[in-house]
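Justification of computing resources. Each target in the renewal requires a structure prediction run like the one illustrated here; the chain below, 175 residues long, is used simply to show the kind of job we budget for.
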Amino acid sequence: MRKLRTIEMKRLSVEEYHEAEKTPLIVILDDVRSMHNVGSVFRTADAFRLEAVYLCGITGCPPHAEIHKTALGAEDSVDWRYFKTALEAVEELKGRGVTVYSIEQAEGSTKLPEFKPEPGKPYAIVMGNEVKGVHQEVIDASNGCLEIPQYGTKHSMNVSVTAGIVIWHFVNSQL
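Resulting C-alpha cells:
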C-alpha cells in the first residue's frame, strides 16, 4: 500500500468547488469562541461539500489568521454568512423550508444513530458555544435536537469533533 500524493487525489479547485453540487446541509455556529474550532468546521464542511457555514454572535469570521490555520483555505471555498444571532439564522432558514436541528443534550432529543435524514431535503445543524452549548431560544426555534450518545465520564465533546461526527452521519446517510 502506498500513500497517495496530493496530485493523485484529484482535488477540486476553489472555482470547481463553487460550481459543484453541494450536500444540502448548513452548519450554524452559535457563539463559538475558538477560531481553531471555526476553522476546523470550515475544513470539514469543505471535505463533505456542504452548502454553507453560518457564523453567529461572537463567532469569528474570515479573514482571520487563526481560522485559516485550521481551515487551510476552506474558508475561501465554503460559502459563509454572518448573523447577529443564531436565532436570526434559524428563523431565516426555516422560512425557506430548511429543517433545523440543534445538536444538544436535551429532553426528547433524538439519538444520532436513530436519525435518518431524507435524501435531498435541506437541513441545518446548530453547533453551540464550547461552554454553554446552544442557546435555549435557538433550541426552542429548532425542529428538534439531535444528540450523540456518550458513554464515558464526560458529557461533552469538542464542538469541531461533534460537527464532524454529525456531518458524517448526514453525508453517510445520503450514500
